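pinned: reference chain
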Amino acid sequence: MRILLPPSEGKTAPADGPVLDLEGLSYPELTAARRRVLEALIAVSKRDDAGEILGVGKRIMAEVVAQRDILTAPCAPAREVYTGVLYEAAQLRSGDDVRIFSGLFGVTTGEDLIPTYRLSMNVSLPGIGSLKTFWRRQMAQSGFDETAGAAETNMAQTTVDMRSGAYQVTMPRGDWWDLRVVDSHGKVITHAAKHYRGLLTRTLLDAEHARGAVPGDAMPLDVARVAGALGRVKVTHDGLRHHITLMLE
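pinned: its structure tokens
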């Protein structure tokens, strides 16, 4: 199983740690693209109109100014740097198998060492253009595949996509699940969705770890059944794509 996550606006800056090593990040085929975005971000962060370009207000400008020196900023595992609503609920641990998509790095694992930064996928950077378009193109050209390794393990590969629309720069292969959260009237609840996506992430990871303790268990995880532990769910199918709707009372 692969779980795809967005980053979070909420981040905790590491107090200490190594500096950023682009070549040491997972998916080295994206190194050149990451360097282009990083250099463009540093340049923008030095401009008077940086806040306007990055879409942030005055309250966040100190973070923008700080990332002028992002190359010397301390780094920590991505699962510790991202601390927004989804990540508070997910409580990621060492060894959790997740892919985190971001405007700065394209995609990393939870263990990759990164600094705190301020760059949404919705931003258009000078010299780069729309980051969503840029990363979609770079990942397609590099042959990036979230499900890499499935053939080697001889197991059916299931992807659970927790990403928001801005970060859906790839199209997962095989069985693909996503989640939306609605109230009792069927209205989509955006903020609560982050919390419940985090809860489902943790529940799925725990279920996957438990399965790993059973030798020879190669059956794909029943994602809908696991999601049902969070509340009342409705499941619809569109070929290999499956939609879970979690209905809050």
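why pinned: Residues 149-155 have pLDDT under 50 and may be disordered. The chain is about 30% helix and 20% strand.
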